[in-house]
Design a protein that fits this description.
By secondary structure, this protein is an alpha/beta fold. The chain folds into two domains: 138 residues, 3-Layer(aba) Sandwich (Rossmann fold), CATH 3.40.50.2300; 151 residues, Reverse transcriptase/Diguanylate cyclase domain (Alpha-Beta Plaits), CATH 3.30.70.270. It has ten helices and ten strands. The strands form two sheets. Strands 2-1-3-4-5 form a five-stranded parallel beta sheet, with helices on both faces. The protein starts with a strand and ends with a strand.
């Protein structure tokens, strides 16, 4: 794996010495150089850097100011930085560590010590990166339905609460669509759950394709889906549901479902943003409208105003 080091030091001699110390390429495939904090920051935001060596004393943006710039950015504040300092006093080193540095090396440095410290911090960064990836995966597993890759029911409620609060603060409408695949139990009973799962995934993909990037789709139950549409009134939400209903009816499946005719029933509800309502009330309105659609013959879209 190609790793990148960024050296920030106003001394060209120091930058050259560091580069020559690491010339064998066993630790870094690329070494970037900057003569001051501003130049270093520009390189940092335009390259994938793994670790930074930074002088404390430099003209203009010195090492401590550079650290402050990193700490102001969420995407950069955890970047490992080893400070280079010619100061022997503890207070300067402590200031660097308190400002966000991971470690320090006193100049003139011993090449073997530099290599050893860089290797240690690369190992630490590798472990931290792996931990972040694992945490992100766990978060996705906790929020996502494993079959359809849509949000799960719990995450839906969390996001819906945020969207409802935003709706009432901004006096904007918000709509919800409940969708249920008609006669889905017959698909499972006749063709098996594997075929049923294929249908669920295809419907989930269709729903996701018809939504905007800031809309939310969730698998609410076995064959039931819930769509949350911020800044959308009741009429517009009905149009979205009708579009999905129409396209679902045109879907074709191979194999055992070659002659199947897929239909979906929809219930739609909305708040206009002027009157505050609860999550449960909005869900109930959409669910009651879905119940109406089922009892009106299925394969249609209903609201409580119908």
């Amino acid at each position: 794996m190609k790793r990148t080091l960024l050296i920030i030091d106003d001394s060209k001699a120091i930058r050259t010495q560091v580069t020559q110390t690491l010339v064998d390429g066993s630790l870094f495939g690329e070494i970037l150089q900057a003569a001051d904090g501003i130049e270093g920051f520009k390189l940092l935001v335009n390259h994938d850097v793994d670790i930074i060596l930074c002088d404390i004393e430099m003209p203009g943006i010195d090492g401590l100011k550079f650290l402050a710039m990193l700490q102001s950015r969420d995407d950069l504040k955890d970047m490992p930085v080893i400070m280079l300092t010619s100061h022997k006093d503890i207070s300067t080193k402590v200031r660097g560590l308190e400002s966000g540095a991971s470690d320090y090396i006193t100049k003139p440095f011993e090449p073997t010590e530099l290599v050893a410290r860089l290797r240690v911090h690369l190992q630490i960064k590798s472990l931290q990166d792996e931990l972040r990836r694992s945490n992100q995966l766990l978060l996705e597993l906790a929020q996502t339905d494993p079959l359809t890759r849509l949000c799960n029911r719990r995450h839906l409620r969390e996001k819906l609460e945020i969207e409802l609060n935003r709706c009432f603060r901004s006096d904007n409408p918000i709509a919800m669509i409940m969708a249920d695949i008609d006669h889905f139990k017959q698909v499972n009973d006749k063709f098996g759950h594997q075929v049923g799962d294929e249908v669920l995934v295809r419907v989930a993909d269709l729903i996701q394709e018809e939504l905007r990037t800031y809309d939310l789709a969730a698998r609410y139950g076995g064959e039931e889906f819930c769509l949350v549409l911020p800044e959308t009134n009741l009429l517009s939400a009905v149009e979205v549901a009708e579009r999905i209903r129409f396209k679902a009816g045109k879907m074709s499946f191979g194999g055992k479902l070659d002659s199947a005719n897929l239909t979906i029933s929809f219930g739609v509800a909305a708040y206009d943003g002027s009157v505050e309502g609860s999550i449960d009330d909005l869900i109930k309105k959409a669910d009651d409208a879905l119940y109406m659609a089922k009892h009106a013959g299925r394969n249609n879209v209903k609201t409580m105003d119908d």
